[in-house]
Amino acid sequence: GQNIDQPTEMTATEGAIVQINCTYQTSGFNGLFWYQQHAGEAPTFLSYNVLDGLEEKGRFSSFLSRSKGYSYLLLKELQMKDSASYLCAVIDSNYQLIWGAGTKLIIKP
Amino acid sequence: DAMVIQNPRYQVTQFGKPVTLSCSQTLNHNVMYWYQQKSSQAPKLLFHYYDKDFNNEADTPDNFQSRRPNTSFCFLDIRSPGLGDAAMYLCATSSTLRRQPQHFGDGTRLSIL
Q1: Which of A4, A42, A96 sits opposite B107 (nearest CB)?
Q2: CA distances (Å), A104 to each of A10, A21, A86, A96, B96, in order?
Q3: B26-62 pLDDT, tens per residue?
């Protein structure tokens, strides 16, 4: 079966750095997305990785290692508005999008 | 601004009473998706349209139907809602099926009385 694992919940402090991990076992790989979802709202696109390495976009960076089936989302200079769920999603060999259940990030002052 | 719009944001219906959720897009994207998402769970793909080609997920109940009369609009019909169908329903679009991020509407939260 296809599976994406993320921690259920994480807590971090305002101004700090947090890393949210995602591991996947899928039939093939054609890219990985990270989405942010605030409570009661729709997911919004954050990043896309298809090659190994780090993609930086402002305070957010996303890393991919295809050989390890592993990605992480790094959030720097955390702000209260970053409190949300972060969903990892992988495109498999059939171009189906496989979603993780998301990591709820709680930011404390 | 170009966007994906879902109406209504909140919908309440009675057990067994048909309900229709709507989605429109101004992105001119070829692909439209309907997802069901329950609390703290991953979005579950119900079906998608590539232009007018309809693709049903194997485990989507027959109770769920969809229509796409034109590029801009897509509807989700739930013929006989059960209590287990209470969820957030998300519409999304993408320019193609391959490697393109999906753009989501704000969702419709469906409650069943």
Answers
A1: A42
A2: 6, 12, 6, 24, 29
A3: 999 999 999 999 988 899 999 999 999 999 988 999 9
